[in-house]
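User: I'm new to structure prediction. If I give you an amino acid sequence, what do you actually give back? Let's try with this one:
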Amino acid sequence: MVYAVDGGASVGKALGGMISVSAPAIAGAPAPSSGGYRFSREEIDSVISQWEDLHSNLLDDYRQAEGMARVRPPGSEPASQDFTSSANPSGQAFAEATMRMIKYVEKYIEALRNARDGITTREEQTEDTVNQFGSGVMEV
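Assistant: Good question. You get back a string of structure tokens that encode the predicted 3D arrangement of the chain. For your 140 residues, that looks like this:
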């Protein structure tokens, strides 16, 4: 049995007990490849947990990157000023890149959860239908 799962982004579906998730599209980023990943129902919660850990680590990186973008010169001599004028834009670029990664990871976690939750909903609906017909009460 094949269940289509659409969490609004058309990124996940289940095929014969496997959940298939493709990379989400991010505005301003190259289009993701047509490939994806397949997880069993038993694996998906572990995969989600790993992505949540990555998200937490990226948030820590972003907090550190913000400090890198606000370097102050140790002195008022030209060498310190020159270093700061180069360091701060680099720190800002790193912070922006890290934020883009955070947004990507958030969308991927959402896609994984939608795929998992969509399967659960479909299974519950199927079970309700089977129970209705299995009760022996059918009107003709």
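You can read the tokens as a compact description of the fold. Here is one thing that stands out. The chain has two helices and four strands.
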